[in-house]
Amino acid sequence: DVYDQTAITYPFATLNDMSGETIKSVLEALAPEFEKATGHKIEIVLGPSMGTAHEAIPMRLDRGEKADLLIMVGSAIAPLVQKGQVKGETKIDLARSKIAMAVKAGADKPDISTMEGFKAALAKAKSIAYSDSASGVYIENELYKKIGMEAELKPKSKMIIAERVGNVVARGDADIGFQQVSELLPVKGITYVGPIPDAVQKVTDFSAVTTSTTTKQELIKSFLAFLTSPASRAVVEAVPLAPHYARRWRTAPMPLGQAVGSGRQRDEVAGDLVRRRRAAARGAECERGERDSGE
Questions:
Q1: Using an 8 Å Cβ cutoff, are 196 and 117 in contact?
Q2: What is the pTM assigned to this prediction?
Q3: Which of 57, 22, 240 is nearest to 131 (CA)?
Q4: DSSP assignments along 171-221, one per residue
Q5: Nearest residue to 206 via CA among 238, 235, 243, 181
Q6: Which residues contact 290 (CB under 8 A, 6 or more apart)?
Q7: Is the peptide bond before 240 cis (omega within 30 degrees of 0)?
């Protein structure tokens, strides 16, 4: 069980992190770098930020699963504060992401740059899919009403539980799919259409918060300082997410140099980190270009 911790003490501690799918790519790229630089181990467990799916973060916490840090949709944190499962005063905003549309690869790519085109695409679609997290909840409860098409669209729409919406579209189980940009881009077998119009856009903030049971506050501060550092910014933007560092920790985090030494050793770690950041950004850009060209 990844949550069981025995005979591991700070500073070489394991940090248990429950995170939403949208932030997955960032953590998969950056966590190994943090581990290499500091000697700490990051255990990541993924799940939706909200909803009743077995894997959802609120359900995991209700079952008593343990974690030190949650990285999830910011608006989903308040109920966890009310339950006493997290410390609300430790919340820090990390990034933000827009809702986008995708269609099956090979299908006509609709023009949704205007509200007229967006509404026309929705009317034409025989089936629509959206996630059971923040973007889908917004579409189902607010967006359809805003555009005056709720009665027409709800009967042919489906909320997807515990699966990337892009996978559903790629299988042909839905003509149109909606989810955060960062969730759609990695999926093969779809054509990324683009963000929905600004007039009905819903930007989702992703935030970090510590659990009420953690004893690893200093390690968490260091990890979050690493995630929000200039060296990590390229990876965040390549996902793509918009860095959103509105709040900072009140106390200074443990510097990475404390764990990796100084001089040449620290320079080698920093240089390797920058090289990997640039490679990740170039790779993400090439992959997006291939998808947009239909290859």
A1: no
A2: 0.68
A3: 22
A4: TTS-SEEEEEHHHHTT-TTEEEEEEPPGGG--PEEEEEEEBTT---HHHHH
A5: 243
A6: none
A7: yes
> How far is the C-alpha of 60 from the C-alpha of 47, rounded, in Å?
9
> 74 is written with which tokens?
């910011």
The predicted-structure confidence for 213-252, as pLDDT tens digits, reads as follows 999 999 999 999 888 888 888 777 776 666 654 333 333 3
Ramachandran bin of 98, using left for φ above 0, alpha for ψ from -120 to 50, beta for the remaining angles: beta
Task: Find the angle CA(67)-CA(73)-CA(77) to the nearest 5 degrees.
Answer: 60
Q: Token pair for residue 229?
A: 């550092």
CB neighbourhood size of 248 (10 A): 12
How much helix, strand and coil, in percent to the nearest 5, is found in the chain? 45, 20, 35
Tokens of 180: 């955060």
How confident is the prediction for the chain on average, in pLDDT? 80
Half-sphere exposure (CA, 13 Å, Cβ side) for 233? 7
Residues of the chain with pLDDT under 70: 1-14, 20-22, 239-295
